[in-house]
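Your task:
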Amino acid sequence: MLQDRPDVPEILKSVREFITGVLDKLDDQERYHALCANYLLNIVEREFAIGGAIDDAAAAKLRAFLGVDAPLPELSKRLCAAIRSGECDQRWDEAVALVMDQVVGKVKVTKPDHLDPMHR
């Protein structure tokens, strides 16, 4: 949907600045909640910025590996089923690499500073 300014990243920045500006005025519990809100805003910002590209790349890799054209959630379910059934045993290294890519992609959005530098 076409929107006039502010756009989503600007809104997120404004909310984060507001929360940061009131942190010193809050009691311990409220401060904790405000810090949690800032943490969640960071996740939303990263999801908005890179989540689509991460999902697109994951879906493309899964489609190539599984030989199936389906949405990402379905592809992930199929990979799990294939691993459980032993269908991936002959391609185990590839399957593990796919799972690792998915985990790295999720952590890039939720807590990227927890990643080893080679995955950032």
About this structure: The two ends are 31 Å apart (CA to CA). The chain has a mean pLDDT of 95. The chain has four helices and no strands.
